[in-house]
Structure to design on (360 residues):
DNA sequence: CGGACAAGTTTGCCAC
DNA sequence: GTGGCAAACTTGTCCG
């Protein structure tokens, strides 16, 4: 409704209204996307349940894989550290 | 009880491994996207702060707009409820 | 490491047993009360049904009134938000 | 606002408005009490944390005691069953 | 790091 | 008794 087409014509004096509005819209857009993805995930769980899978177990599996992935990432990071240390010793 | 769709196809006994793997991968893919979007949002807040905007106020503005949208949704929901309550009371 | 506040006072070593017991008992007492109230509510629904009222409609009515109350609370909260947002924007 | 002092004078025809209102108010009163107790419990957890206790461990302890109590209740129930069976055999 | 906020998980209830 | 729905509780995340 209250469109602010003309910068400087409103009561905003300290901040650029256009910039503010752009930022707000970008964030809102992204949050909507995020919500959409969360819904998609829920749908997949529902579909899995409909196919006879146990959602709870499914969540556990994904959690386990996430932990494993984190550990692997940690190890890779450590490898990087070692490598750079070796570089410095060369 | 547990029907064997793919007997002898591997060490899996109760569930179709392919289906399970597909589902897990789809969920993991979506969760990664979700994390990426959350990161994008954080980036925008950081950028806004760098441009002299107060992140706290920004969040409040977005919260206000969300509250407004929620209220509108709530009213729609309430209308639905009234309708069904009236139906049941005849 | 763990400081001994009451040495020799029993097998407890890190925490004051009396305080812990008191807290646990207070919580359990309150949870029991809560359960009792939930039971009372169920009883009223049962009684209402026995008197020919439709429990589902009853729940909807209570839900409607709750939604209204929530909306009023939401508006108050929104007013607060506006005030603080305006304060921060000066 | 919309007071229904005179039964039969309004648009309600099938149910007694007074009875309905009484029931709704009783339930709402009880739900408010329930919420109040839940808040009290939260306060105790906060207080415990302020005193250096770990709320998570506290919850686990209470959960354990609850399980034990349930088991004891189960055993008592079984005893009752045995007793009545013995009575019938006497 | 500690509290506030949101997300996810669990639990209880009702209908079938 | 089971499965879906809604509410409660718990967990994780993010900011200050």
């Amino acid at each position: 409704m209250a469109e602010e087409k003309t910068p400087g014509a409103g009561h905003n004096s300290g901040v650029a209204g256009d910039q503010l509005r752009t930022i707000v819209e970008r964030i809102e857009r992204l949050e909507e996307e995020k919500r959409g993805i969360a819904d998609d995930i829920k749908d997949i769980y529902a579909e899995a349940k409909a196919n006879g899978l146990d959602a709870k177990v499914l969540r556990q599996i994904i959690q386990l894989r996430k932990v494993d992935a984190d550990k692997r990432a940690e190890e890779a990071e450590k490898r990087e550290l070692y490598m750079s240390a070796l570089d410095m010793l060369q």
Notes: Chain C touches chain D at residues 15, 19-20, 23-24, 26-28, 30-31, 33-34, 37-38, 40-41, 44-45, 47-48, 51-53, 58, 61-62, 65 (CB under 8 Å).
